[in-house]
Amino acid sequence: MEKINLTEWDRLEHFKVHSQRDVPLYTITTEIDVSALKSFSNKNKCSFYYSLVYLSTEILDSIENFRYKIQNQEVVLYDRLIPSFTDMTPGDNLYRGVTLLRGDDLFDFCESAKELSQNQAVYFPEINYPLDQLIHYSMIPWINFTGYQNQFYIDKDDSIPKVTFGQYIEKQGGLMMPISLEANHRLVDGYHMGLYFNRLQEKLNSLI
């Protein structure tokens, strides 16, 4: 973790402007084509959802602004983020929270996520990582939503990216899935949001 020297930070003016907002959190919702990921996960017999969490985390890690965190009126930069995601077993209607390091291999991650999720004795186990190092993921596979708003604490320092996936449907010759991303405008602009969505789509397309 690196402490940012704010006096030399190129984002300082933007940080100050958006620090004036009572709630500087904002969300963008769009669609991505998951056709290639669906084929990939079927072919390799790995979880579509776990694979998507892994790839999304890889993309967020590649964009520095999502790794900035506000701590005690200072800004720090983490090396990597940690996915923390909702999961549900077939036949259940209550979700559990699953948190684990991404690692460097998608298939290892999928296996570890499956094992961890199935063996959890409680829905929300204690998280042994810095909470602001997490990415919060949710999956709502029953709804092809067009907009999304998270519940939130009124905390101007909340620096945790929140990603929500929805139900994919056949559309425009592919499988289109809604996805929303929430971030803190003190750290992340629309430019960085665009990088995330575009890089994620390119990553998914490369799975063909």
Automatic annotation (TrEMBL):
Record Pfam families: CAT
GO molecular function list: chloramphenicol O-acetyltransferase activity
Domain of life from the UniProt record: Bacteria
PANTHER family in the cross-refs: SLR0299 PROTEIN
Name assigned to this protein: CatA-like O-acetyltransferase
Species of origin: Vagococcus intermedius
